[in-house]
Sequence to fold (124 residues):
Amino acid sequence: QVQLVESGGGLVQPGGSLRLACAASGFTFSSYAMGWFRQVPGKEREFVAAINLRGGTFYVDSVKGRFTISRDNAKNTVYLQMNSLKPEDTAVYYCAADQYGSTNYYSTRAYDYWGQGTQVTVSS
Fold:
């Protein structure tokens, strides 16, 4: 069965760093584009970052220069390195897999599989 399992969330102070990981199984990971989204109560799920099959990356403007998405196909894992964290980064973070490598990587509708999410809280 298909599984995407996020880990690495937690409580961190403003300016701190956190590294999220998403372990995939049950499908051919290297053939899928991968994305990270986040969601806060009362708001729609928001695109954060994506990585395509060739390692090309894409980010929402608010995280450019602070976050880095990467993948390790040998480990079937996608990562999100988050530096210089701000309180407004607080959210549940989800990873997702896109079978067709859609150019609409910013839309939840492009993704076929989703993880359960991991909480990130940035607070002093």
The two ends are 40 Å apart (CA to CA). The CA atoms of residues 13 and 123 lie 5 Å apart.
